[in-house]
Design goal:
By secondary structure, the protein is an alpha+beta fold. It contains 16 helices and 16 strands. The chain folds into three domains: 4-129, Roll (ph1033 like fold); 152-282, no CATH class; 308-429, no CATH class. Strand 14 and strand 15 (404-407) form a beta hairpin. Helix 6 runs parallel beside helix 12 and helix 12 packs parallel to helix 16 (427-436). 34% of the residues are buried. Bound molecules: zinc ion. Zinc ion (ZN) is lined by residues 345, 347-348, 350, 384-385, 387-388.
Length: 440
């Protein structure tokens, strides 16, 4: 990897790198030459295959590395390799017919080359490749029956109506806890399906520590009964009338996990944030969210800022793998928003006075750090007083579509968000934040 080894480690501290490469252009002047020269970190990339767009992602790094490309991908028939490499994050898979989009963009169909499209067109046509649209399963569409597509709203509706036992007017917690644990596995890019032995070792202690005090539920219960949600597969056990015992599960070598459809939806950042927020607020209101999310590898979802707290917020959220590569917030942007509002909080209007000036904090709406990976731009920033910054970050308040600032515990409107005419707050970031709040 040469000099790029460190850059890669910094871009992908978790150890899994997502790269996409391009061979050198054949001609001196071509669409590809323009695209290779013009693409930038922060650009969005659409992936095309078989006349469809199949994924989108964001460029977080660019480099040329012939040796790395040939080691990873080999060479094509003309001995070229995919040496113009993009490092990617926010990878979202979906399937959308490409032809109408390409025609709208004035790009020849079928798409034959790396093609760069300007921001203005991108805004117009991104709607047509909405990653929120249902995932079309690419497998199992055989004569054995068609797998049904599952959208983000289907998933959330299902999660909101899990069948849970009621004990002393409180819903039992084994299913929601197990689902959070399984989302944690997806977030860590571990296998969707897990063997019963591992399941028992990992979920058992969670049920003991976070379940209702008087609950005697053991891990085989959610392992088996989550099937009724329609989001959960169990393999290796015949679908009989009685629930299998632990020894039957061991004997059968059973495994369980999210269905392929559900896992696909939960790999999308917004859907995942909303699912976690919804599960926590619907079923686990009395559980220490930071503690539980930390145990299942989802610590960053306990706050809006994630593992890179905004200024002022030291935070109790454990910060893993912080390196110099973490996105650095732009100090000029921070200054700009504070000056724009004259340090007045966009929620309450208060200005904290200091001896010689005033004090305010710039808060990212969709946190800059992992797992949120929000962008560092003005439309994702708020100018807040320290109190409202903490409340916003710790999900005690949220902002609805009509700019009303609401208390999460009651839903009551407390303020209306103050907005400067030069400050276009982007609703998509507020939507992500509402998702974390369980208000998706
Ligand atoms: Zn305030």
């Amino acid at each position: 990897m040469g000099a790029d080894a460190n850059a890669l480690k910094n871009l992908f501290p978790e150890g899994v790198a997502r790269l996409w490469g391009s061979t050198p252009p054949v001609r001196e002047r071509s669409e590809k030459v323009t695209a290779l020269a013009g693409r930038k970190v922060g650009d969005e990339v659409l992936f095309y295959a078989e006349k469809k767009f199949v994924a989108k992602a964001r460029i977080i790094g660019l480099f040329d590395n012939h040796a790395l490309a040939s080691a990873v991908w080999g060479r094509d028939e003309s001995q070229k390799t995919w040496q113009h490499i993009m490092a990617l994050d926010n990878v979202v898979e979906f399937e959308v017919p490409a032809e109408p989009v390409l025609r709208g963009l004035g790009v020849p169909v079928p798409l034959r080359s790396l093609t760069l499209v300007g921001a203005e067109k991108r805004l117009r046509f991104m709607d047509m490749v909405d990653p929120e649209a249902p995932v079309r399963p690419r497998v199992n569409r055989s004569s054995t029956g068609s797998a049904t597509a599952l959208g983000r709203s289907d998933l959330l509706r299902t999660l909101a109506s899990l069948k849970t036992h009621i004990r002393g007017r409180r819903p039992s917690r084994h299913k929601p806890i197990t689902l959070l644990w399984a989302i944690g596995r997806l977030a860590a890019e571990r296998d969707r399906m897990v063997e019963w032995q591992t399941f028992r070792e990992e979920v058992g202690p969670l049920l003991r520590d976070f379940g209702l005090a008087d609950s005697r539920v053991t891990p085989e219960y959610p392992f088996w009964h989550l099937r009724s949600s329609g989001l959960w597969d169990v393999e290796g056990v015949e679908d009989g009338t009685a629930a299998p015992t632990p020894s039957q599960l061991t004997e059968a070598g059973a495994s369980a996990g999210f269905s392929r459809n559900a896992a696909n939806v939960l790999r999308r950042p917004l859907a995942r944030a909303e699912a976690i927020g919804l599960i926590c607020s619907t079923y686990l209101g009395e559980v220490d969210r930071e503690d539980l999310l930390g145990r299942v590898g989802l610590a960053g979802y306990a706050s809006a800022s994630g593992d890179l707290p905004d200024e002022g917020g030291e935070g109790r959220v454990p910060r893993r793998s912080r390196t110099s590569s973490q996105p650095v917030r732009d100090p000029q942007l921070v200054d700009r928003i504070k000056v724009m509002y004259g340090h007045a909080c966009q929620v309450c209007g208060a200005r904290v006075e200091t001896q010689h000036s005033h004090y305010s904090e710039a808060a990212h709406i969709q946190g800059l750090g992992g797992p949120h990976h929000g962008p560092d731009r003005l439309s994702n920033l708020l100018c807040l007083c320290p109190n409202h910054h903490v409340e916003f970050d710790r999900l005690a308040i949220y902002i609805d579509e009509d700019w009303a600032v609401r208390r999460n515990s009651t839903g009551d409107i407390e303020y209306e968000l103050k907005r400067h005419t030069d400050h276009a707050v982007d609703q998509q970031y507020l939507k992500y934040h509402r998702g974390l709040c369980g208000r998706g």
